[in-house]
Amino acid sequence: MADHFQLRLVDSRMLASSVRHLVFERVDGQPLAFQPGQFLQVHFHYDDGTATKRSYSVATVGDGASPVERIEIAVSYVEGGAATKLLGELPQDGIIDASGPYGRFCLHEADTHPRYLLLATGTGVTPYRAMLPQIATLLEKGGREVVLLYGARTEEELLYGEEFEAFAQQHPGFVFHGCLSRQPRSEPRSSDRSGHVQNVLSELAPSIERDIAYLCGNPNMVDAAFAALKEFGLPVPQIRREKYISSR
User: Fold this and answer.
1) Radius of gyration of the chain (CA)
2) 0.85 exceeded by the pTM?
3) pLDDT tens digits for 128-146?
4) What is the C-alpha separation between 93 and 243, in angstroms, rounded?
């Protein structure tokens, strides 16, 4: 059930030249109970006093089930954006208003398909970071495979890329493909792919018997991947979507 609370910034770092990773704690000292894949809403006002809000997936890696003390999000900078002004310039110990958690973009215990196809672009990869403990549990049970296709223009924009690479090395059932659409790495890796994530799907040959798909990120990618998966025969209930729209 959604709750309203204040968050205090306790740490931050730049993930890329235009993406900031922020770490918050609740001002009231309470932990946040959430399901990996859910999001928070940040509430603030435009300069003219009009109330507005922005949604950000929780990126915190906990144990996949328990409430978390630290609430992590990734924020993309939008030129002239009101949320960019608020969160991009928020100082240490700065306080914001928030509510949540919301959303159903989560792994479902009732799913029995043997493979998960996770597709993302930009900060749309954050819910998958939070899902890593759940993915590890799935893989430990055997008979499951998880493939993450993460699209970015350049290596610098593969947010949390090294974390996903390390997770793939530790968990043989997890495959990570960085899909670079504009410029390859200076030292390419065998797991890299060239082009947009939806165009890499044919290599995986999705099928109704095998796959559950999750799509998160740029609306153009989500729409293109959704259409491609339907052409491969996946029914709508086996394709879960969350679009990230940049707002000013």
Assistant:
1) 18
2) yes
3) 999 999 999 999 999 999 9
4) 30
